[in-house]
Amino acid sequence: MSSRDASLTPLKAVVIDDPPLRQTPEPFDEQSTYDPQLPIAIDFGSSKLRAGFVNQSAPTHVFPNVLTKFRDRKLNKNFTFVGNDTLLDQAVRSQSKSPFDGPFVTNWNFTEEILDYTFHHLGIVPENGISNPILLTERMATVQSQRANWYQILFETYNVPGVTFGIDSLYGFYNYYPSGKQTGLVIDCGHEDTNVIPIVDGAGILTDAKRINWGGHQAVDYLNDLMALKYPYFPTKMSYLQYETMYQDYCYVSRNYDEDVDKILTLENLDTNDIVVEAPFTEVLQPQKTEEELRIQAEKRRETGKRLQEQARLKRMEKLVQKQEEFEYFSKLRDQLIDEPKKKVLSVLQNAGFDDERDFKKYLHGLEQSLKKAQMVEAEDDSHLDDMNDDKSTQKFDLLDIADEDLNEDQIKEKRKQRFMKASQDARRKAREEKERVAKEEEEERLKEQQWRETDLNGWIKDKRLKLNKLIKRRKEKLKLRDEMKDRKSQVSQNRMKNLASLAEDNVKQGAKRSRHQATIDNDPNDTFGANDEDWLIYTDITQNPEAFEEALEYEYKDIVELERLLLEHDPNFTEEDTLEAQYDWRNSILHLFLRGPRPHDSENIHEQHQMHLNVERTRVPEIVFQPTMGGQDQAGICELAETILLKKFGSQPGKLSQTSIDMANNVFITGGNAKVPGLKERIVKEFTGFLPVGTNININMSSDPSLDAWKGMAALAQNEEEYKRTIISRKEYEEYGPDYIKEHKLGNTKYFED
Amino acid sequence: MSGGRGSNGNSNMYNGNSNSNSNSNDGSDERLLFLRSVGERNEIGFPSRFKSAHYKKPSRRHKSARQLISDENKRLNGLLTKANKAAEGSTTVKRLVPKATYFSVEAPPSIRPAKKYCDVTGLKGLYKSPTNNIRYYNAEIYQLIVKPMAPGVDQEYLKLRGANFVLK
């Protein structure tokens, strides 16, 4: 076994630390090239903010949408750090806060400060506010108060001339299909939610769009929860950033979750797909002791041990003698009482402190058993002391045969000592003889077995296998019984409680109505319990004596191992794999593979203590956008939503797609930061192929960086002057229509109610 | 000024040559000076240059996302009942029909039966513990995890798929 384990190469562990701190602050854009008319596009996402002038090909500033208020105690002054600048220092980073609560902006003071910071870094030269028009992202069908606040901030705080609101994923679609007239379907995987939006002739159809309340943020939290439950005693707590790293680096979408999950926890698969992540920790090295010190320590320990052993032995011996005497006395008593009338027996026994004959027998039996056991132990212990003791055995026991009356006090003491010595010597001799006898018997047995094997190997194997199976079966039953005894509600314990209760009831009755009872448990003539020695074994029953039960289990296990050893030696068809131990092999344990991967676990190893294994989680977490019920969202997954849109809406009927639906299937666009999870596109292709009629053209697209799609779409829109003009809400319009105003356009939100 | 920043606040990697006593102090000082310089350059917390001349800081009440959602629900329902009351008995005023609201775009429950997975491992969960409703993959998981589960932990597992008890 261990040789098999040793041949395995250790798995490589990846240390997951918080991302490194940044070294340089966020750069400022050049003020000299500032154009006061050029629109500014801001993708104000709940995870990241992306901002830049629309004549750029990509946003010039991309940073986490967070802010830290940092108190400088020496100057007694507050500094505020935003975005990437919060990543300059550990203390600042750990205190960073988001203006978002879930999908909504809730802290507008933070928002103002973040915008100040953004404008400052864009190199804007302000003139009573900002003179550039703004393009901004919005959540699909967002609540009205969000827009009202944005209006207020942009028009009243920053005095901007105009603003365009649009849905982030529709901007993304526009960027990919800049004609603005494409029919398609957007699957938007965001930080806080996931959306499926049909698009007809370049315009989002929000009446048929759907949102799942699950995004990258929820996925990372879910991974965090899973790992906390998987390793409840993990020595350190991993941060959100660390889990985010795990999610981004190691999670993937399975092509077929049910199929993959069936074979994920196998040795071959785990060898390549089990990811070992290690929490960073500082190793504490124990100071090394010199060899001399170790030697002295060991010596001391050995000596104390010896002394204690000797003391224990003497005590044991004394007890043994006592027991021996007691046993002899009572055995004599038993022999004397054999032919006496029952009544007399009872009175004698009661005088001696027993309830009845039964009690007496039980006591005697127990005594005998413990004597036998003690003698065995003694014999083993003493075998090495024998030589020494044999010398002493020549001691004379001359006082023993003289009556006490003829001795003085000292001699009586001496006599007692001699009796003690003699008894122990006798006991030892007896035990030795017993041992020799047993050894002889074993030898005979072994020879007989050998002969049997030589004459009839098959018969022998059959017999041994049968015995082994019987033993294993009995062991299983015992284990089951033990478990059931532990469970208060199990049948076994309930029966036991019933028995106890009825016994107690019987006792009460006895006192009151003794005369009417003809046969009680004590005087039933048919009750032959105790006549047979085996009967008394019931007192070593598990219900009374759990230690004895454990012992029996262990004993039995030894028998099993011995039988297996014999079979291994002589039965060509019996291999290591068949042994009981092999069946407890970690290789066969799903739980081990799940928790510790495809290698044996060493719980002493400090590195392994700080390691977590990502295996099922890698695909279990991203699966939730396809099956939100797994994450506790009672909603349909993205492919089911898409299926409804394509097969049941826009004039499609079962088995017959409308032209609109055909166009949609041909232009599916995946966007959003959470779409970066590997395998997402392949899975969507597979599912679409499954539910669309055979032969439908399926075309699923994704840009190289789906998190930048929305910003690029805003920039593209601003370049198309005609289209752009129609989307701008001017300050005048805001003042006229108020904060409820929604200007409908192809890429934006629609009004809340039908006209 | 932009020396290397260690991951811990008063790391002494800045002044490798000075003696150890003043080391951490100098390091944190340098770090503080650096942060100050960044903070000052960013000008936040100073009177903003970008805001309009008549800017007054509005007094806003902080509302959580949950409150925002319930406010929106109240607002929409209020508009609906008001408009529909006006529409009753009138031929000129049309009834109000919701088009796209935060609530109407919410994905409906799946029409397919939810697949069952092991709450512990994520594998298929064909069995369910009768005592705490935890789904499990096989007897081993049941014996070693589900059965001896400490009270309360079962709820943690169930919470992952929203099947926990919620006291109201």
Automatic annotation (TrEMBL), chain A:
The gene is SMKI14G2600. InterPro entries: Actin, ATPase_NBD. This is Uncharacterized protein. Residues 425-447 have a biased composition (Basic and acidic residues). Residues 416-447 are annotated as: Disordered. The keyword Transcription regulation does not apply. It comes from Saccharomyces mikatae IFO 1815. One of its GO terms (cellular component) is Ino80 complex. It holds the Pfam family Actin. CDD domains: ASKHA_NBD_Arp5. It is found in: Nucleus. Belongs to the actin family.
UniProtKB/TrEMBL annotation, chain B:
Residues 1-29 are annotated as: Disordered. The keyword Transcription applies. It comes from the Eukaryota. This is Vps72/YL1 C-terminal domain-containing protein. GO terms for biological process: chromatin remodeling. InterPro entries: INO80C/Ies6, Vps72/YL1_C. The keyword Transcription regulation applies. Residues 116-145 form the Vps72/YL1 C-terminal domain. SMART domains: YL1_C. GO terms for cellular component: Ino80 complex. It is found in: Nucleus. Keywords: Nucleus, Transcription, Transcription regulation. Residues 8-26 have a biased composition (Low complexity).
